[in-house]
Automatic annotation (TrEMBL):
It comes from Paractinoplanes abujensis. It comes from the Bacteria. InterPro entries: Glyco_hydro_beta-prop_sf. Gene3D superfamilies: Glycosyl hydrolase domain, family 43 (2.115.10.20). The keyword Signal applies. Residues 1-23 form the signal peptide. Keywords: Signal. This is Glycosyl hydrolase family 43.
Length: 173
């Protein structure tokens, strides 16, 4: 009798386990404008993506027609297929220093110690690339606005390209 009960219980347990669920495959094509809910396309050159809560946030450069810095824009998506424009989190009028600056490659991360979102950017003077700096902005909410804290040269280095800033070292004699 015990073996019959055990067999029935085992059958009920197996029958109650749901089958694995898979989402339908979705193709996202490269080289086309990504659809958004409120804009004709995403303006997020050199950007980065961050997951916060149940959404993904895409930060990137938004340039004027003459290729000068206009803003760092942020878009939000629940599934990374359709993006919703949120706002311009840092603009050329956010700080006097940004009025004539070139801002490149904004990346945002969360600092659990301070409870703030921190944006690292590459900043140059609009006429002198030799004045390149790493720059920082922060906010208490992922979609800003971000307060610009300024630029600096870590270890008195130049900040060029996509690699980390490299320290200038005198040649060996």
């Amino acid at each position: 009798m015990r073996s019959v009960v055990a067999t029935v219980v085992a059958a009920l347990v197996v029958a109650s386990v749901p089958a694995p669920v898979q989402a339908a495959p979705v193709t996202i094509a490269n080289g086309i404008h990504s659809p958004t809910r409120v804009a004709p396309g995403v303006h997020a050159h050199g950007g980065g993506v961050l997951e916060a809560g149940s959404y993904w946030y895409w930060f990137g450069e938004n340039r004027n027609a003459d290729d000068t810095f206009r803003a760092v824009s942020v878009y939000r998506s629940a599934g990374q297929r359709t993006w919703e424009f949120r706002t311009d989190v840092l603009t050329s009028s956010s700080a006097a220093e940004l009025g004539h600056a070139q801002i490149d490659r904004p990346k945002v991360g969360y600092n659990a110690v301070t409870g703030r979102y921190v944006m690292w950017i590459h900043k140059e003077n609009d006429t002198d690339c030799g004045k390149a700096r790493a720059a920082v902005a922060s906010t208490s909410t992922v979609d800003g606005p971000y307060m610009f804290h300024g630029g600096f040269r870590p270890l008195a280095s130049t900040c060029r390209g996509t690699s980390p800033c490299t320290r200038r070292v005198a040649p060996r004699t």
